Structures are given as structure tokens and as C-alpha cells.
Amino acid sequence: MSWKGRKKHFQQQVANFLDIPRDLMMDLPKVVLIGDVQVGIENHRGILVYTPELVRVDTTLGELEVTGLDLVLKNILPDEILVEGKVKSVSFRSGL
Questions:
Q1: DSSP 77
Q2: Could you tell me if residue 2 is inside a domain?
Q3: Which of 26, 43, 71, 81 sits 20 to 30 Å CA-CA off 60?
């Protein structure tokens, strides 16, 4: 097992033992979809693309892509982004 794999395994064990959510312990993105009108993204690394039809955000798992119509960034914080509009899809591009 590689160093990266051992580190990830150790983090999972610690998170389980201490009953800490994995997204916090392992710096994983947390994506919350509310119907087809809102997407909340926590633990991001920045906005890569922003148009009314596409929002692409960098995460530890690769790029998270939100497609739709009339997409608007309603909230931009250092660790959280809120996208609103008519959401058509949410997907990861180029994972680990």
C-alpha cells in the first residue's frame, strides 16, 4: 500500500474511532442538492469556471461540475459555495 493509501486508511480509522464526519477528517467535499434549484458545496478549493450554464469547482476528489440554466453563485465563502438556478446535473470530472 502506498503512503497516500496508508494515510487515507489511517484517517478513516481515526474518523470512525472519534465519531468525526469523514468529510471533515479527510477534507472531502460535501455536496448538498436541494431539488433542482440549489447546490451547496463545502470543502472546495476554488471556482474554475462560472457561466450561467456551467459552474466547475476544484475539490480534493477532482472537479465538481454543475450544469443547468440561469446558474448564479449566491454565496461564496472560503470553504462553501452556494449555486442556485435550474440544475440539470452534478458530476465529478477526473477523480483520484
A1: E
A2: no
A3: 71
Q: Please enumerate, as own/partner, the contacts of 72-80 that have beta carbons within 8 Å and a separation of 24 or more.
A: 73/47, 76/47, 79/42, 79/43, 79/44, 80/40, 80/41, 80/42, 80/44
Q: How far, in Å, CA of 39 to CA of 81, rounded?
A: 8
SS3 32: strand
Considering the domain boundaries, does residue 67 fall inside one?
Answer: yes
Q: What are phi and psi of 78, to 5 degrees?
A: -55, -30
> CATH no. for residue 42?
2.60.40.2000
3 — pLDDT class (breaks 50, 70, 90): low
Give the domain extent around 67. Answer: 27-93
What values do phi and psi take at 61, rounded to 5? -100, 5
pTM: 0.74
User: 46 pLDDT exceeds 50?
Assistant: yes
